[in-house]
Amino acid sequence: MTGQASAGLDARGAAAWIRRAAELVSAEAERLTRLDAAIGDGDHGHNLHRGFTAAVAALPGDAELGETRPGKVLIAAGRAIVSKTGGASGPLYGTALRRAGKALGDASEADAAAVGAALKAALEGVQELGQANEGDKTMVDALAPAAAAYAAALDGGADLAGSTRAAADAADAGAAATVPMQARKGRASYLGPRSTGHLDPGASSTALVLRALADVTGRE
Amino acid sequence: MVGIVIISHSRTLAEGVAEVARAMGVGKAVVEPAGGDSEGGLGTSIDLVEDAVARADGGDGVLLLADIGSSVLTAKMLIEDAEGERILLADAPLVEGAVAAASMAATGADLPAVHAAAESAREHRKT
């Protein structure tokens, strides 16, 4: 159950995460697209709004959520995002969610350690597919510090809510730190030094998705 | 015969590259375009790419050529999902790689040879 702030993540919790991520991404879609227009191809917010809207539509109904697994919910959401997003964020977010879902396995409720392992698996999937390292001015610059901060918080005795909050805060800081970076992946990399001085849209949207996780796991 | 799939952000670009590659494959090579997103705009649709792979697959494997960004990522993701099936992505410029691959595929060469031909297109300098 997700009734307690410190409880694990069950299928309803995973679905709530996807819904909250869709809300945040849609609310910020214009800002993300504006960021993308500066150094990318100007469609990030629109694409992610479309992808996460499709992910919400693919969520199981309320009765089925009582029966299914959080891992399955994330895998289905990832598949919908891959089909409907259209830009590079589709395969990247789709891989992140599918790997996270696979890492959760068949458990009916993921505890705080399992969610940390899922974040790590998501990061590995994104890096494998996109071949990006930290400092390349990509979503990895938000996701990598988030996974690390989550693990550190958990080691320090934090519960699921505390660990996801640490991850979201680290993702925000990681995204902000992309401003002076020179892009080494994607369209922005063609701009060379002209790509500096801008916030990376992928890191920004990743911070929103991790904030969504903190929001739903922190709810009473 | 090895099939070839051209993945581009643009439907017309994918079709145009496929047209040129088919001509260079002397009408024998099977070259299928997968261009644009699921709504007919610029982008990539994994569903369109999967359909093109199914059309191109004659049992001897399929070589993918992709333009940039999401086309490349979608190709890599599809290969990961198609565990055990014979699908490869060429690290090659789109037009030159497609022409080289179609030329080699038309000889009846196997997938590794068609893949190598596509990647050798990188070495054909223009100046």
Automatic annotation (TrEMBL), chain B:
InterPro entries: DhaM (IPR039643), DhaM_N (IPR012844), PTS_EIIA_man-typ (IPR004701), PTS_EIIA_man-typ_sf (IPR036662). One of its GO terms (molecular function) is phosphoenolpyruvate-glycerone phosphotransferase activity. Gene3D superfamilies: Phosphotransferase system, mannose-type IIA component (3.40.50.510). It comes from the Bacteria. Its EC number is 2.7.1.121. GO terms for biological process: glycerol catabolic process; phosphoenolpyruvate-dependent sugar phosphotransferase system. It catalyses: dihydroxyacetone + phosphoenolpyruvate = dihydroxyacetone phosphate + pyruvate. Signal peptide: none annotated. Pfam families: EIIA-man. Residues 1-125 form the PTS EIIA type-4 domain. Keywords: Pyruvate, Transferase. It is an enzyme of class 2 (transferase). GO terms for cellular component: membrane. NCBIfam families: dha_pts. Homodimer. The dihydroxyacetone kinase complex is composed of a homodimer of DhaM, a homodimer of DhaK and the subunit DhaL. Component of the dihydroxyacetone kinase complex, which is responsible for the phosphoenolpyruvate (PEP)-dependent phosphorylation of dihydroxyacetone. DhaM serves as the phosphoryl donor. Is phosphorylated by phosphoenolpyruvate in an EI- and HPr-dependent reaction, and a phosphorelay system on histidine residues finally leads to phosphoryl transfer to DhaL and dihydroxyacetone. This is phosphoenolpyruvate--glycerone phosphotransferase.
